[in-house]
Amino acid sequence: MSGIQHRIAARVVPHIPPGAVVNLGIGIPTLVADHLPDGHGAHLQTENGLLGVGPTPAPDQIDPDLVHAGKQPVTAQPGASYFASSASFGMIRGGHVEVAVLGALQIDATGRIANWAIPGKPVLGVGGAMDLLVGARTVVVATTHTAKDGSPKIVPECTFPLTAQRPVDVVVTEAATFRTDSAGLVLVDLAAGITLDWVHEHTAAPFRVELEDALLPQAGH
C-alpha cells in the first residue's frame, strides 16, 4: 500500500471510538488496524469469522490460515474469537457492529456510495458492503479524493451501481473529511497543507463548509 493510503487510514483513527466493535472493509480500510494506538481497545471484526483482528503480520509471522475477508494475512489479538461466517453476518445485520470502515469508488452528493462494481468490468460480488451499510450504526468511508485518472470520486450522482440507499456518516480522504446530514455533504476538516480551493477544485459534488473537531461520540452513545 502507498503512503497516501496509509495517511488516509491514519486519518480514520479519530473516528473510531475506543472499545467499539469495528468492521474494516477491503483495501485502505484494512490499514486502519496498523494505525490504532496501543491500548485503544477497538475490537476489529472481519465477516469471514474473526473478532479481535490485529495489525498486519511481519513476513516471517504470516499464518496462511489467518486471513481477513479480502484473503490477506492478519494477526489475532489475545482473546480473539472465531466463528462461522453466518454468525458474523448475524452480528452485522443485528446492529452489533458500531463502526464500519468501507472503501468507495464514488460518493454522491447525499453520501451514498458505489463500491462494488464498475460497468464493463467483471463483477466479483458485493461482498459484505451492502450488509454493513444497512446494519452498522456508523459508516466511515476511507478513499482517495480522486480516481487514478485524476477525476473526482465525490460526485453529484454516482454513475456506478449504488451499494445501498443508506448514506454514509463520514468520508475521509487524504485531503479532507466530510460529514453527511439531511442536506448533504459538510466539509469539517482539511488535511495539513490542503486549501479549501483545492478541495473545491477536486470535488464535483456541492458541499457546505463547517470546519470543526470532527471526532465521533464514544462507543455506546
Automatic annotation (TrEMBL):
<dbReference type="Pfam" id="PF01144">
    <property type="entry name" value="CoA_trans"/>
</dbReference>
<dbReference type="InterPro" id="IPR004165">
    <property type="entry name" value="CoA_trans_fam_I"/>
</dbReference>
<keyword id="KW-0808">Transferase</keyword>
<comment type="similarity">
    <text>Belongs to the 3-oxoacid CoA-transferase subunit B family.</text>
</comment>
<dbReference type="InterPro" id="IPR012791">
    <property type="entry name" value="3-oxoacid_CoA-transf_B"/>
</dbReference>
<dbReference type="InterPro" id="IPR037171">
    <property type="entry name" value="NagB/RpiA_transferase-like"/>
</dbReference>
<dbReference type="GO" id="GO:0008410">
    <property type="term" value="F:CoA-transferase activity"/>
</dbReference>
<protein>
    <submittedName>
        <fullName>3-oxoacid CoA-transferase subunit B</fullName>
    </submittedName>
</protein>
